[in-house]
Write a structure and sequence with these properties.
Layout: E1 5-14, E2 17-27, E3 32-36, H1 43-51, E4 58-63, E5 66-67, E6 78-81, H2 93-101, H3 109-118, H4 134-146, E7 152-156, H5 164-179, E8 183-187, H6 191-197, E9 200-205, E10 208-213
Helix pairs in contact: 2-3, 3-4
């Protein structure tokens, strides 16, 4: 089976600082792949290259058989949560998701409500996002990532701001998403998240990648 994501000799610099140093990696379909590394190691930059948000200086990013920036600008079927999710603060959660869904017009209210339910948010909640707690905003960000039923999920620190019960709930959700056949890249500073969820683990240190577990 063709890997969901292939990175070939990936380099990325900002000014004179090289952040990624020739990363080569294949991410097999239908598995949870853990990415670990200290702040500034290059994890988020690598994920942004996979999403098409950043263009590598050298090398290739291939997602579902298509090369980013050559065959397509952005992957066709990918859900993303990177850094702090941004939403319109004066709108409710469901209105924010409806606005985002209108860009591609591939889902309706039913699918949006299902995504909110899966992350533990009430679709009927009338509170604007400005009144949400940090954990609620994080749940809304995850709902945004999964609502269009993408084949690949890029989850950068998805447990930020969640309490103990929230962490347990989102871990269960991620396991179910794998059972549905999703390919998931998961970055977390919490070793328990990596140990409990991931089929493979790799570490990025100073822009180079090392395997922990295959």
């Amino acid at each position: 089976m063709e890997p969901a994501i292939t990175l070939k000799n990936l380099h990325k610099s900002f000014g004179k600082e090289e952040i990624l140093h020739g990363i080569d990696r294949e991410f097999e379909s239908g598995k949870i792949h853990g990415i670990v590394g200290n702040n500034g190691s290059g994890k988020t930059v690598m994920m942004k290259c996979i999403c098409g948000f950043l263009r590598p200086d050298e090398g290739q990013v291939i997602v579902n058989g298509k090369q980013i920036a050559k065959d397509i600008d952005f992957p066709d079927s990918m859900g993303i949560i990177i850094e702090t999710p941004g939403f319109l603060p004066n709108m409710t959660g469901i209105k924010n998701l409806k606005l985002l869904a209108s860009l591609r017009e591939c889902i309706g209210t039913k699918e949006i409500c299902q995504a909110l339910d899966r992350v533990g948010l009430d679709p009927e909640l009338k509170k604007p996002v400005s009144k949400y707690s940090l954990g609620m905003r994080q749940r809304l960000g995850i709902a945004q990532a999964i609502m269009e039923n993408p084949s690949i999920l890029i989850l950068d620190e998805p447990f930020n701001g969640l309490d103990k019960n929230g962490v347990a709930q989102i871990r269960d959700l991620i396991r179910h998403l794998r059972e549905e056949g999703k390919t998931i890249l998961l970055a977390s500073h919490n070793q328990a998240d990596i140990d409990e969820l991931c089929d493979t683990v790799c570490e990025i240190d100073a822009g180079t990648m090392m395997m922990w577990r295959r």
